[in-house]
Amino acid sequence: MKDQAGIYETLKAKLQNVLPDFEIAYKAEIAYKVLELKQKRRAVILGHAYMEPALYYSVCDFTGDSLELSRRAATTDAEVIVFCGVKFMAETAKVLNPKKTVLLPSLRAGCSLAESIAPKELEAIKARYPGVPVVSYINTYADIKALSDACCTSSNASEVIQAMNAPRVIFLPDAFLAANTAEELDKKISYAKKGAGQTVVFPDADDWEILGWQGSCEVHERFQPEDVKNLRAQFPDVAVLAHPECKPEVTALCDFVGSTSGMARYVAGSSKARFALLTECAMGENVQAANPTKEIVRLCAIRCPHMNAVSLEATLQALQQNRHEIDVPEPTRKRALGAIQRMLEVG
Prior knowledge:
alpha/beta; 3 domains; six-stranded mixed β-sheet; Rossmann fold
């Protein structure tokens, strides 16, 4: 393990164009304490691409998007898993590792998308369309996964839907990911939505092939076509990349649409010098640090308040105080496990 000075030098080399020196020095001190405790507790730290750069590049054993981290969670032999992400991700790790301690550094690390649908609403949809397979996005809580036939991420949504081998599929909860996926698969889409209480309003016609749900990510829903037009007006050479949780009218104007890992690979492999990432803005900083010769334009920077709640300081406290431990009731866990394993099998 590196000493504090070594951690500082590593972070400085990586983040000198992203963070001021005094912040790098402060974060190196916290990171050293985290690494000490991680070693003592035989812990593994998983870091989502939306984490702050100082955390992302100092203490994480594995980094990436939801699918990559789910795979890592499924194979770890660590006694403790610290998931630097949001609650549904930590729940997924617990479903895959029921005998391990799974810690989430902040209870404020929720997700507007995961909270957009309740089990009773999904139960009503299933009752209305019996036998139609349900594919739930990874951005859902375990009780929704437990009612689903399979899960997916933004990088394998099309493949999972096709793997259902069914004429119609219920796909929830992100309306824009559903619309972008339906377009990719050339399938007709309709939507159900939240009614009064936990009732559901169904589409008037049943001629759909994909039934979506009117949920959305509070970050990605804020990007507008005007943002892309403004970017191109000010920076004609910019490559605009969007997450598929963005509106279809936004993704239609972009050079690339893909998952967080897909966007990172695009920047790394592109000959262009300037990029704009229409996703959570901390990822732009992490991609910038990984590609120092390239420029990430920050004209539309939006921070997720839930991801922002997870910091190096919170990660240290999680290891020090064994907080906040994630648990999933065994009946729910067993049912959710099948849906998650189906996702991992598809790849």
